[in-house]
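Ticket #4471: structure export looks truncated?
Reporter: QA, pipeline team
Priority: medium

Steps to reproduce: submit the single chain below to the structure queue and open the exported record.
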Amino acid sequence: MFSPENINIEEIESSPCDLVLVDAGTGSGKTFDWKLVKKIKRPFILAGGLTKENVLEAIRQTHPYGVDISSGVETDGVKDKNKIKQLIERVRTYETTN
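Actual output as written to the record:
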């Protein structure tokens, strides 16, 4: 896992892993400056503060292989089926139009 405070593009590019996870790293549900990952050329998964409200902008800006959503689909600390469904619907709509 790479977080904004320790992001090293050379290290990410040379990692032997099939995918790397780029995460805000704080578990706070807050995003980070997505411009930091624009130089990554290999597949990566974006995490950190993603919600149904911001996931499409995150995808547009960073072009990740995938996204990791956790607290962004919770209500009172519990996964919320409606939030999960809405987020998936938004991502699927984006995928079919782009």
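Status: closed, not a bug. The export was complete when the record was re-opened. Leaving a note from the reviewer for reference: The two ends are 28 Å apart (CA to CA).
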